[in-house]
Amino acid sequence: MFKYYPQDADKNIPETPISPEHMRYLKKIRREKIIIRLTQLIILFLAFALWEIFARLRIVDPFITSQPSRIIQTMGNLYREGVLFQHIGVTCLETVIGFLLGTIIGVIAAITLWWSKFLSEVMEPYLVILNSLPKIALGPVFIVWIGAGPVAIIVMTLAISLIVTILEVLSGFLSVDQEKIKLVQIFGGSRFQVLTKVLLPASFPNIINALKVNVGLSWVGVIVGEFLVSKAGLGYLIVYGGQVFKLDLVMTSVVILGMAAAIMYQGVVYLERFLLRKNQRGF
Amino acid sequence: MKAKVELHNIGMKYQSPNGEINALENINLTVYDREFVCIVGPSGCGKSTLLSIMSGLLPPTSGYLLLNGEKITGTSKKIGYMLQKDHLFGWRTILENVLLGLEIQKAITPETKARAAELLKTYGLYEFRNKYPNQLSGGMRQRAALIRTLMTDPEILLLDEAFSALDYQTRLAVTEDIYGIIKQENKTAILVTHDIAEAISMANRVICLSKRPGTIKNIYEINLTCTKRTPLSSREAPEFRHYFQSIWKELDIHV
Predict the structure, then answer these.
(1) DSSP symbols for A98-150
(2) B1-77+187-255 belongs to CATH 3.40.50.1100
(3) How many CB pairs lie under 8 A apart between chains A and B?
């Protein structure tokens, strides 16, 4: 997650045949990488193994803590009942829709606020209040207004992720060097050209950053939404499992949720790398 | 000589909640065709403001200015502007950067593209056309920025401390370079700088501005005895240090 990419470390290195020292250096980095990955896997394995052992030896009560073998069993049951992928699918779909809508509407709103200084000054206190308000408090309002269903869940997701997106993208716009804007104006560029030629490409890293934050927030929004209203989805399984005291079901859903969220985040990271390579350098 | 730019009683007052700043007052100046004029002055005297006014970006609060005898009311294709930093866009290749102005003016045609290639070839950047700015040296970047400005074929170049972001040695080389290009392309140039030596080394005339509110204090005609005038050879001319002394005294800078 916290990888350090040296920006132009390889820029000035001439292409010469690899010396033995360099070879040794490369080997050393590769070995370090493998050791780190290995340690990560061992920690994961140990955690699950200890969990299982403690539960079997009744050091902890598996009725309260569940245990890995039961989680696998529960997954199997859900799969046999034919509802496993239905629950995963519902939650993922809601998250993806919320995420995309949040990003698109957020960027458009940020552009609007940049375009009109009047509007952005008028909106400022509202944005501040909306940003600090715990959006979960609005949940019951959405249910009453929109009705219990996927739409209410998506609106909940938007409520959580939208303001953050707007503020992040807008701050990207405002941090663009004024001289770069001046340059476009000198060539006779319109406000729209300033937006497309400078602001959007220059705040590309901010937009990507907003996407990353948004992935996490979308999951929060969807799960909270599902807690409140749904009849399907991982959030529903967690709440239902908690109510009937089936901790196996709760833990299973949490584990699946963790994997789904990690996969989606990784997806955004790959998207970022792909776009950066296309949109290369200089940031 | 033909008058290119004429400034008539230009004045500029900035408004702010804390009061009014009188940046420029009563500036009258004529710049002739193919002339190289340098404007020097103490910091904060309104040099850059004056350049912004000439570019048409900033309307003066009083007075008017003419380009080829016509009033300037906004930005014009006839005026090119070079900023302190190169401001090449990191997400564009050198060629795409050079074409920025034409792209904005929707003037990209096979002919203008060919001209871009030609200019890049003439000034030694053609091989780098598909590279990104951070793969080029400071001097090359500045040259690319000049080509970007030249692409829209302006008649006048405004240079706003165009070299001051470079280190000293690169700066001398780039000055030599850019001066050569400007002369070769037969452009009229107005350079704002705080570097007296740089001003004398390039200018036909050096304009000294006073402290705020900026007014024209004195104008020096620079006549140097050297065989072929370039910024570096100018520095070796015997008159160089006399000019330096008088302009230095004129600016009357106390630390």
Answers:
(1) HHHHHHHHHHHHHHHHHH-HHHHHHHHHHHHHHHHS-GGGGHHHHHHHH-SSH
(2) no
(3) 65
